[in-house]
C-alpha cells in the first residue's frame, strides 16, 4: 500500500477526531431537520412542501460549515427528505406536482439524511397526527414495527443468515397480527 493510500485509509478511520466531528455535525443537522419536519406535519400540509423544507434546511445548515476549509468539502443532502403517509411503506419524496396532503390521524414515516465530506447521518421517525395517546390498530402497528426493529437489531450479526432474521421477524409480527405486505 502506498503512502497516499495509507493516508486516505487513516482519514476514514473513526480514531480521527476530524472524522468523528463530521459525523457528529451531520447527525446534529439531520436531527434538527427531522424536528423541523415533524413540527410542520399537520393535517392539510402538502407532503411535497414538507420534503422541500427538510432538504432546504439541510442545504442551508451545511452551507454554513467548513466554508473556509483548505480543500473543497462536499456537503448537503445525503438522502432526500421523505414523508410517507399511512400505507406508503417508505421513501416517498414526491415530484413538485404531487398534491398529496396529510390528514387527521395519519401515521407518517419521515426519513432524511445529511452528509459532511461523505460522512453520512440518516434519521427516521414515525409520527401520528393526533392529539393524546395513540390507541387501537395504529398503536398495534407502531408497537409491532418497533418490536421488529429490535429483533432485527439483535440478530443482524456477522455469521448470521438473512433467513434467520426473516424467520424471527415473521414470528414476532405474527404474534401482533400485523404482517407487512412484503417480507
Automatic annotation (TrEMBL):
Protein name as annotated: Uncharacterized protein
Organism this protein belongs to: Diphasiastrum complanatum
Lineage: Eukaryota, Viridiplantae, Streptophyta, Embryophyta, Tracheophyta
Amino acid at each position: 500500500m502506498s503512502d497516499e493510500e495509507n493516508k486516505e485509509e487513516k482519514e476514514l478511520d473513526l480514531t480521527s477526531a476530524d472524522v468523528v466531528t463530521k459525523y457528529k455535525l451531520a447527525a446534529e443537522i439531520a436531527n434538527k431537520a427531522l424536528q423541523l419536519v415533524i413540527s410542520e406535519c399537520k393535517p392539510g400540509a402538502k407532503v411535497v412542501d414538507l420534503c422541500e423544507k427538510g432538504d432546504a434546511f439541510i442545504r442551508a445548515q451545511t452551507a454554513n460549515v467548513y466554508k473556509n476549509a483548505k480543500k473543497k468539502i462536499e456537503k448537503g443532502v445525503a438522502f432526500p427528505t421523505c414523508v410517507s403517509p399511512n400505507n406508503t411503506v417508505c421513501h416517498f419524496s414526491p415530484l413538485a406536482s404531487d398534491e398529496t396532503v396529510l390528514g387527521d390521524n395519519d401515521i407518517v414515516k419521515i426519513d432524511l439524511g445529511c452528509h459532511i465530506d461523505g460522512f453520512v447521518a440518516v434519521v427516521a421517525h414515525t409520527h401520528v397526527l393526533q392529539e393524546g395517546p395513540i390507541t387501537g390498530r395504529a398503536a398495534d402497528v407502531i408497537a409491532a414495527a418497533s418490536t421488529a426493529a429490535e429483533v432485527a437489531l439483535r440478530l443482524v450479526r456477522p455469521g448470521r443468515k438473512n433467513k434467520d432474521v426473516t424467520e424471527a421477524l415473521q414470528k414476532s409480527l405474527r404474534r401482533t397480527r400485523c404482517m407487512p405486505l412484503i417480507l
